[in-house]
Amino acid sequence: MEKSMSVSSVDDDADSVCSDELLGSQSQRWLNELLPRSNSHPDESQGRLFVDHNFPRTELDLDPQVEWKRPPEVVSSPHFIVGGATHLDIAQGEVNDCWVLSAIASLSLNKCLFNKVVPQGQTFQNGYNGQFIFSFWLYGRWEQVTIDDRLPFKNKKLLYLNSPTKNEFWSSLLEKAYAKLKGGYMALSMGLPHEAMVDMTGGVTEVFNVPNFKGSLSTFLKDQLQRGALINMANLQGEFGKANRVGILFKHAYALTAVQQVMTSMGPVTLLRILNPWGNTEWFGQWSDFEGSEWAMVSPEEQKRIGRIRKEDGEFWMSSADFRRNFQMVEVCHMTDEIVDECSCDNLWTTAMHHGTWVTGFTAGGRGASLWQNPQYQFNLTQTDSSGTCAFILALMQKHSRRRDIHLGIGLHIYKAPPNDTTLQAEDVATQLPVLQTPNYTNRREIVLRGSLPPGSYIIIPSTYEPNQQGAFLLRILTEKGNAANKAVKPHTHTHTPMTTVVYTYPHQTALPPFDRMKDLYWKHCSKRGYCKPHHLHSLLTEAFQSGVLAGTEKKLSLEHCKTFVVLKDSQADARLSWQDFLSLWEKIRQWTDIFLTLDKNKTKHLEYQEVGPALTAAGVKADRFIMTLVGLRYTEPDITISYPGFLYLMLKLETMIHTFQAHDVTGRGTITLDYKQWLYKTLYN
Questions:
Q1: Burial 471-504 (b: 16+ CB within 10 A, else e)
Q2: Do 78 and 124 contact (CB within 8 A), yes or no?
Q3: 372 Rama class: left (phi>0) / alpha (psi -120 to 50) / beta
Q4: Residue 59 confidence (pLDDT)
Q5: pLDDT of residue 264
Q6: Half-sphere exposure of residue 652, counting CA atoms within 13 Å on the CB side?
Q7: Cα–Cα nearest to 441, from 423, 459, 467, 419
Q8: Which strands form 157-158's sheet, in the order they lie side by side?
Q9: How far apart are the first and last CA of the chain?
């Protein structure tokens, strides 16, 4: 152990020259030589252009007519962005992902958010290396997704999203990055626009039924656009892909890009500007581009002011009355100060975020009489609006469930807080009715509850439909400014804030250091450049495990365990963890520690073999006989138990391999295709 620490010190000094730069670039060259290429660019054969070997494209590999080409191979002067990115740079390809494209179109209207998702300065000119980076919001954090610029072409045409400007590729590459995040291009076929908007903004999306909306819809939508919201809508009344008599496609996602009051010779008229992501198939009712005689009442100067373009580009205007007649569903993605704190946008919602877990036998109470056993959160409303009440929005998102083919029914309940206590007990739930709740449980990824309550203290309870259903969640509380929401108090602390306070405890609190302590340990043990390699992680976790109820288990932690932890959570494929990578690993460790401590019934700091199956089930893994046999043969100790570090090792290995398979099984057939070198990369390196 002391020798390992000594080597760590020497390696830190070498980091600045050799370890991070020379070895990292050498490793990338080795990987480029090891793994397969298709339609190689001349420079690629020399290892100069980045190749993304983790992008799942098996469904396209089966088509011999599909060619993967880089933009410099297709056009003479490719550009990432031409003349600024706009919502007109988007034309749908052969995959039914209008739900993604409408979100991208809306994103392009918010330059601050756009620059967060699409980092500026990327180019096909000086410094071009075939690598492009995008960022998406996942469960409370912005995550980078790195891709190469090889795009699928068929008959010399780009298969998927493309720009009408043929040498512009930001939108095509953004679509590819999002496809990688979701598991491949085919994973984008059919989806919900509000989910794509959340992934690209971190906002909270409300879904409105247009016929039931009270008041002026155009006024409400204009106000939301001014507050930075992204808005999509759809007509739900007919067969997918077909159009009504005035050109609006059924079950097709459109983006709202502007609401303007236009001066006509007959007086002011409110018009809404709408974009069809297909880039064509426009509306041809009143105020349409080509058949709208109403434009004769508007002066050329007024038309120029609102940016009217008479062109078959998928963008068109319609009146507010026609909007109500032709769309039944509107999705409004609200921006928050937590996400766009550097943007100059007025009237953003203030936000508190809480990461929580439903743990089988502990914090998974389900609905009904055992509802009180779920995690509980207190929030205090003090500042009223003009109505004399306090407006807020709650959003509950289940995390990491779809890749495990788990669809929990989730719901929210709000109770008045007891006068002399901060938590609800069984008798409270039995004798009180909630002041507000979601109308039903649903297996959507995220549910949203809008409310307005008198000032006071309240308890929020997120729950699953059935008790003892394991899952992780993110709870977000949005309030108007003046009713300030503080950042979430982490479950490991007992600090109280004016707005939201976690009032439930978890087993890992007695076993693992609090967040601030872990942050100190990370910077104590990482390299001088801020990266954590396996030997750094071994020293870090050894110290972290020494002080709590699991003290002594650190002796079972091996360097080989830590090598696996690093490789499986490393987002850049360079065998080291960034601070963000470590946070992702640490969140998993906390969740699995809760499960381990709950199921270690005899407190031996080992799981008996018969306890392993329930532990895997609690973590969301279907522990059938085949898996249990492999676990018994490969991961148990001589006495057929699994140590705490061994359990963490098993869980990370198992979850990662399941996710890897699902990412490649984009057709859902239960089989994947890997060639020899891809197989070596997935098994030997991992």
A1: bbbbbbbbbbeebebbebbebbeeeebebbbbbe
A2: yes
A3: alpha
A4: 63
A5: 93
A6: 25
A7: 467
A8: 66-69, 151-154, 157-158
A9: 25
List the single range of 273-287, 297-311, 491-505 with lowest mean pLDDT. Answer: 491-505
Is the pLDDT confidence value at 462 over 90? Answer: yes
Q: Please name the amino acid found at residue 666.
A: V
Does residue 284 have a pLDDT over 90? no
Strand partners, 377: 460, 502
What is the b/e burial string over 609-647, where b = at least 16 CB atoms within 10 angstroms of the residue's CB? eebbbbbbbbbbbebeeebeeebeeebbeeeebbbbbbb
Q: Residues near 79 by Cβ (< 8 Å), separated by ≥ 6?
A: 123, 124, 167, 168, 169
Residues designated as active site: 98, 252, 276
CB contact at 8 A, 510 and 549: yes
In one letter, which amino acid is 72? P
Average pLDDT value for the chain: 80
**Two tokens at 191?**
């989806």
Chain segment 31-43, per-residue pLDDT in tens: 443 333 333 333 4
Q: How confident is the model at residue 192 (pLDDT cuts 50, 70, 90)?
A: confident
Q: How many residues does the chain have?
A: 686
Q: Measuring CA to CA, which residue among 230, 193, 235 is closest to residue 211?
A: 235
pLDDT band per the 50, 70, 90 thresholds, residue 73? very high
Sheet architecture: strand order including 254-264:
204-209, 329-334, 230-234, 254-264, 267-275, 315-319
Judge whether 147 and 138 are in contact, CB under 8 Å: no
Of 308, 245, 249, give the one whose Cα is nearest residue 280: 249
- Do 653 and 631 meet the contact criterion of CB atoms below 8 Å apart? no
- Report the pLDDT averaged over residues 643-656: 89
